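User: Predict the full complex structure for these chains.
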Amino acid sequence: MALEPVLSHIDDALPAALDRLKEVLRIQSISTDPAYKANCDAAADWLVADLKSFGVEAEKRPTPGHPMVVGHIDGPGPHLLFYGHYDVQPVDPLELWNSDPFDPQIEDTNQGPVIRGRGASDDKGQLMTFVEACRAYKSVHGSLPCKITFFFEGEEESGSPSLIPFMKENAAELSADLALICDTSMVAPGVPSIASQLRGMLKDEFTIHGPRIDLHSGHYGGPGLNPLKVLGQVIASFHDDTGRVAVEGFYDGVQEVPDEILRQWENCGFDEAAYLNSVGYTRPHGEEGYSTLVQQWARPTLEINGIWGGYQGAGSKTVIPAEAHCKLTCRLVGDMEPEALRRNLRAHVEAQLPVDARVVWNNDLDGSKAAVMNIARPEFEKARGALSEEWNREAVFSGMGGSIPIAGFFKDILGLDAMLIGFAQEDDAIHSPNEKYNVESFHKGMRSWARVLDALSK
Amino acid sequence: MALEPVLSHIDDALPAALDRLKEVLRIQSISTDPAYKANCDAAADWLVADLKSFGVEAEKRPTPGHPMVVGHIDGPGPHLLFYGHYDVQPVDPLELWNSDPFDPQIEDTNQGPVIRGRGASDDKGQLMTFVEACRAYKSVHGSLPCKITFFFEGEEESGSPSLIPFMKENAAELSADLALICDTSMVAPGVPSIASQLRGMLKDEFTIHGPRIDLHSGHYGGPGLNPLKVLGQVIASFHDDTGRVAVEGFYDGVQEVPDEILRQWENCGFDEAAYLNSVGYTRPHGEEGYSTLVQQWARPTLEINGIWGGYQGAGSKTVIPAEAHCKLTCRLVGDMEPEALRRNLRAHVEAQLPVDARVVWNNDLDGSKAAVMNIARPEFEKARGALSEEWNREAVFSGMGGSIPIAGFFKDILGLDAMLIGFAQEDDAIHSPNEKYNVESFHKGMRSWARVLDALSK
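Assistant: Here is the predicted structure of the two-chain assembly.
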């Protein structure tokens, strides 16, 4: 099927596509708040109707929470599963919005026009780039170049409680050759990006116990073992002087970034100084010898997220407290095994403790492996080529410092590799007041998907 | 004046003395709670009347807070100022008391009889040991062997806001040769003790700032500087592996305990193992090479009293917080200068900080020097001899881990050396439910003061 008329159609139909996006943005589908249950349902209904409007066999599918939307449309090429989510984050603090979060408007900015409103970027705007690309194909050619399954959830912003059970129960229906996900950012403005690796996560929490009860530092100050001091020593023991994590076995399963990928990252337009300066840093503080991007995309971390113990009120209290608390998370890369890491981490902490101190662990916190995309599959280079053409610059396989569990679920439950292509900008303010999506992201996003479908069908 | 008849009179009059103690214990003189203002006033009135009943010229003296009681009685010997306080701690949690805290009762225990009630030990019972000794002298001999000024305050348990102004305004009236204070414990049951050194205190608090705002550990985990990690490193830097404080200049002004005092402490009946085990320790955790008592009485400390930062709720939050907080106190001994120590401490913390971290100090917290009693004065050996006779075992010059500012005030404002003799037991539960005072402490306390007055008058 010819690509050029599809791209022209997308250009001509941009105002109509923006009108449709505004329609779905007006639906207040805040998934975490039960008060918006009917709104979530309405968003699912809207999507079902929209998919049906260009020939997709689509259905709203009930779950114990908000419904899924599943749609199928045939085509000659490979079978692709496209995932997105129609639910959005809450809008508070409402007073920080400059306009009604659910009355989307096109606004001119120094980045060009943007569409502003809750969900404009995360994820309704991104989701619709793919839907619109499919619609354009159907309009121009009467059919699609690939077989597509649409799979939209309404609980992504509230922990996806129904996702895994639904995928397990409907594994046959959701089977495909490759999953596509549009919920990520570009590494820099104008730089098309395929997220090729997401870090995993290990969560843990411990309490160091010292004396049986809180003690008075007049009576016991000196001979008394202070768990706050012990916690400080434990925290200090986690890293060596070069920023490397000093837990034995921590780096098991970590690979260095291949030169080819490293070259892409070095040329991806990421402005290291601006990124660091924006939060008050003059240099990166992770492992020596790695750039900021590598530290954040391809190196594991051990991060203290919370500490507390003893007196925290005004003034002073001469207490040696009985307990000190610490929450931490590790970011995982490569083949790091969360539970093996947990054992190593805990053994490390136990080994730091002096006589008369003991540690109690919270056993309710989970872990997930890093997701490393299977970029050896030919679809990845095809898609990269398609994106490079659309954006007139080489697309990059980018890393991501965060964790998106959905990619792992596709692999584990459905045996599906996932390809993450997104057009969001770092400054889209997702989860924050005044969320926006650049009209360029929307427009070129639609065109990008048209090109990707074309490339994958060949 | 003959001592023996005074001691006999004290023995005979014990029931009457206990009745008087019960009377004053029934007065709910909780100084920190404005609801008990009239009760504090009533306690002062009771003391004025009681002092007058045996010929002391006593007056209630107003202050902006609760009144002082000042009384004078003449005698041939040296002029002694006796200090005590008539106010008590609140009684909550009331449900943990086995009897009404303000309905004192004599109770038989395996330590012999005790009088139970709020203030029985701290400080009404202790205060009355001295008053009763004076009364007995007056009954037997018609006069006292020394000139005495009584000085009782009603705000000791609520920060003594009126004490320093009152002492300054009435310095001439409060002048004497030596101050006596009865508000301390014996180092072990049956071991008479003169507190010869109290530790001072330096309070400080700081906040370590890292990034300008809280960061997401997916985005910045790796290159991001985490103030919680920096705080851990700062805390770990405070002590070396032997438990010694590693702050430069920290030990300036610290002297080793003289052998003669050390010998007294080694034989004072202090049960180190029981003291440590009672709170869950198997060994002392302070500076290596010093016993538990020396660590707690005669060595300075740097103690972390509170830490907080980042996420402290349920579950996990992937945050790199902007701030980490730490409260600490140092216990001072010898000639350590609080403000010099503060400068050294702060310089130490600043020196630990990596690039992009900064520290902000709370400048509202004070410090006080250690109080080292002038035991070279002959009165101290006289009193030690008197106590040794009464208790049939050598009295000791004991240290105290805590800080009692009043001794320093007597020195600074009135130029008075203070001698602290007390008969409380470690298990008296002062400030706690079911406070008690051993009847033996009360009885032998009265006899002890009679002997001390006798010894000092010679």
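The longest helix of chain A spans residues 124-141.
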